[in-house]
Structure formats: structure tokens, C-alpha cells
Amino acid sequence: MYNIFEMERDEPKFWIFQSNPEKLDIENAINELEKDVFTVNQYKKEIRKSDKVLFWVSGAKGGFVGYGEVLTSPEVIDQNPEAVKFIKEKDLNKKSLRVWVSYNKIKQKILNVDLQEEYFYMTEKMCIFKNPQGTNFPIDKEIWDFFVKNFISRLIIPFSVAMKKELNPPDIYRGEEEIQFNKRDSKFKETLINEFLTESKDSKEANNGK
Fold first, then answer.
1. Which residue, 13, 54, 120, 144, is most buried by CB atoms nearer than 10 A?
2. Domains in the chain, number
3. Is residue 108, in this structure, part of any structural domain at all?
4. pLDDT in tens, 50-68
5. Does residue 9 form part of some domain?
6. What is the CATH number of the domain that holds 112?
7. Cβ within 8 Å of residue 179, ≥6 positions away
8. Is residue 4 included in any domain, yes or no?
9. What's the whole-model pTM score?
């Protein structure tokens, strides 16, 4: 079937997708699922595959709970069967205009009240804080980059440490490389960080001994 919304675009757009906690337990859905479907109620002709998304919860205890990417363009589809246990309202099980999205969790929910208190200069630019009624809200790249920089967990480690146990490590140390750890287990993280600290300590002692 031809999708009237399927159009190529050089650069992605950026969105907030908001859910009502009385209708959908998106926080646990993000923790358990790698991808899911999300309702498109606004900007039906603008939301497209490869766009970037911040996931939001509405209400008094609402806020930023995760991020991801739009995997398909909007089309009328069924609810994701793997997400049924997170749905609290039967109407959400009906066919609707939806997109598939990827889910990535963050360390902890960033509450609206905290964002407004500490980052007012940024939230005043976000339409979700001006008129929070809705499902899909546009944001610009500046806001997306702000959330990536401040709230999406990343760890910088030396490339040489990351490659330490490889059979053919690089001959030349080429600086640092950014490596995402949000999908790594805690044991892996602890081991890699300890290796980094041990290598740094040994290097410092060797330099002091010269």
C-alpha cells in the first residue's frame, strides 16, 4: 500500500512524543521494550522515518523519560502486542495512525518542574511547556542537542582501553572515542572503568619513576 507520508528528507526533524500515565505506562515500556508503536495525533504530514524523538510523560509528575527514533512513517496500524501489558485504556488497543519508534532509556526521569527551575532559558522555547495538551510536539535541533548533551548518558574512555583485549589492537593511539554504555550491563561498565583507572595509575607511576 502506498504511504502518502513517505517522503525523503535530507535532515531529520525533532519531536516530543507525550503520553498520559493514566493511559500508558511508558516508563516501564521503555525499560522493557526496544521498540514500540506511538500514536500520531498532530503533525501527521511532517513526522517521518528517521526523525528524532524525546519521550515525555504528562501530568503533575511529568517529564522527560527517554529518547529514540521514528522507524516508520505514519500509517493506520494495530497496537503493538508486546506493549499490551503497559496499556491502561482499552481505546489505545484500537487501530490508529501510528509510527514505530525505538526506545532508549535514561538514568532517571527529568521532571518538568526541575527543568523549568534550572533550565528556564530552554523550556521557554518549548511549546509543550506553553500548551501541554497534545501528543506530538515539534522542537528544534538546539533543544534536541541540549537534551543529548545534558541528560542522555554517555561515557568517554580512551580508544586504546576499549581495544585492549582485541586480538589486533591498533598500533597507534588515536585519541579518545565516544562509546555509549546505556545498553551495557553494570559488570561490563565496572570492568572497563577499572581497566582505565588501573592503566592511568600505572602510567602515572611510571612517569614519576623516571
1. 54
2. 2
3. yes
4. 999 999 999 988 999 999 9
5. no
6. 3.10.590.10
7. 154, 155, 156, 157, 162
8. no
9. 0.69
